[in-house]
TrEMBL record:
STAS domain boundaries: 1-111
Record organism: uncultured Acidimicrobiales bacterium
Domain of life, source organism: Bacteria
InterPro entries per UniProt: Bact_StressResp_Reg, STAS_dom, STAS_dom_sf
Name by which UniProt lists this protein: RsbS, negative regulator of sigma-B
PROSITE patterns from the UniProt entry: STAS
Amino acid sequence: MFVSILQQGDFLIASIHAALDDSELMRFQKDVMAEIANHRAKGVIIDVAALDVLDSFGSWSLRNLVHMARLRGATTVIVGIQPEVAFSIVELGMELDVTTALDLENGLEYLESVTTGHRAGKSMLGVLGSHDT
């Protein structure tokens, strides 16, 4: 399983568990967008803690996903950026231009502070959109 999309209350947690190629990143975008619509999610956390590298296409894809989610009414925060990835993003001059948080807990706190959503309530952990790409 390379990615999973979990529901936690009014939010989705989309985790990337391994490096994705370009076509897998595009599928991830489509899957997250479908789950936002299916569950009327108020917020999305994209967890990239498992990634030790993020190339320019990967950062572009994540940035576009954040913008697409916003157009659907969902606030997005990216969590778990590893120090090496942060260093590379800055050194290479890539524009990520998205909201980030240190970890999942900080991401949930952020979403609760800027949306009307709550993490309590329905939880569909492990049920939504898990797939091998």
